[in-house]
Amino acid sequence: MSPKTSTSRGGRSRGAKGRLSASMTPGRVAVIVVAVLALVFILENTAKTKIRLIVPEVIMPLWVALLAMVLIGILCGAYLFRRRG
To answer: Is the pTM of this model over 0.70?
Structure first.
């Protein structure tokens, strides 16, 4: 058989469903689940709250404060664990 007429295992050629299942890896599914949970978290925490920053007191939505802390943590982690070349 020539390569153009050969089929994959099971006697069927690999179609759209095969490409879809190959692109949905466990890592991608986990990222989608985390993104949906983050969206739900943001939508549930839209109320404003008082946050004390050493001296000033700021009023902002809770999700903004938590997002700022996550970004600061990511930047600190990237700085500490960056590759030195």
So the answer is: no
Q: Which of 60, 58, 35 is nearest to 46 (CA)?
A: 60
Residue 5: inside a domain: no
Shared domain for 67 and 40, answered yes or no, is no
**C-alpha to C-alpha distance for 57 and 49, rounded to whole angstroms:** 10
Domain identity same for 53 and 28 = no
| Digit-coded pLDDT (tens) for 4-45 | 655 555 555 555 566 667 788 888 999 899 889 888 888 888
* Model pLDDT for residues 44-73, shown as the tens digit of each residue: 888 899 988 888 899 998 888 888 888 898
Residue 67 is part of which domain span? Answer: 48-85
